[in-house]
Amino acid sequence: MRAAVLRGGTVEARVVADPVPGPGQLLVRSLACGICASDLHFMDHLDAGADDDSGMSTYDPEVDIVMGHEYCAEVVGYGPDTERRIPVGTRVSSLPILATPTGRKIIGQNPESPGGFGEYFLMSEAITRVVASDLPSEIVCVADAISVGWSAASRAQVTTSEVPLVIGCGAIALSAIAQLRRLGVGPIVAVDFVASRRATALAMGADVVVDPAEISPFQAWRDVVSGPAESMKELMAVAGLPGCVVFECVGVPGVLDSIIKGCERGTRIYSVGGPPEGDHLHTLTAKRKGLNIQFGGGPSMDHWDEAFEAVCSGSLDVTPLLGQTIGLDEVADGLAAARDATGPVRIIVTPSAQGRTTA
């Protein structure tokens, strides 16, 4: 098969061996796969997983790795010990985890579990979900990205006496905003340096967008909660200043620490950014303020299913996130473009494409 292959820190399109499905696995054809910031973190930071003994994510620069973990695919074959409950030709997706004889692997982040930047890859039948939708595969594949922020927003259980502050407006933040809106939470304050990202945040459900180059996000939050809205005045009269729930969705060193230093006392922080090179935190400040920090954790299967259904049904419109659609020969350039914060939130790889572009 043809694939965009990561080896020695660079990506090139070439021919590699077809994957062979093992017990409980499906062989699938990649229809569309999003480029995620996690792909960049994976290829740029060889030591990021040094302390992770799970073996789920393994980067060996001397071995071929096919990345891509946000996918929509088509079933083409079965491995042994499969139920074959999903007919050949059916469009499918899944949480990007592959069960193997040596343990669970993240699809697209391990030599044993190639991903959607190749013509074919493997999926675990047990967690595979059928795409019950006529929407294009380029839209369906975004569901996995949506599930991360969706899960964080759901787990936060923001109350009517709290006002969320979302730092960063990439795919994860936008999905958190969308789910907060669906849950009836508000007003939602979103922060990003890039005007196009702030516009997308409004499209996904944010009430107020903030350019941190012009005003401190925390001052902007304070202005919102002490604003003229009658409902907010009533809330403050009953409960005092609303509580703050911050969603850190940047993943750059220093951002989480700036939140710790700038936020209100008693703030709850959901850190889903996670810089792979690590960070320094003023823990004494966090202690004095009585902060509660929840680090990542990834989506639960239930939350993944919820996000997948919302995308496939069209009840959650993800088209504001979509930009270019590229072929395998353009993946290296697509990865470089994904580093640009002013670019589209999601560049989609379709292995059969020849560099076409969507609006």
Automatic annotation (TrEMBL):
Q: Which domain of life is it from?
A: Bacteria
**Which organism does this record belong to?**
Pseudofrankia inefficax (strain DSM 45817 / CECT 9037 / DDB 130130 / EuI1c)
In its UniProt entry, what is this protein called? Alcohol dehydrogenase zinc-binding domain protein
What InterPro entries does its record include? ADH-like_C, ADH-like_N, GroES-like_sf, NAD(P)-bd_dom_sf
User: Do the record's keywords include DNA damage?
Assistant: no
MF terms (GO), sorted A to Z: oxidoreductase activity
Keywords for the protein's UniProt record, in alphabetical order: Oxidoreductase
Ranges where the Alcohol dehydrogenase-like N-terminal domain occurs: 22-126
Q: Which residues cross the membrane?
A: none
Does the keyword field hold Oxidoreductase? yes
Q: Where is the Alcohol dehydrogenase-like C-terminal domain?
A: 172-294
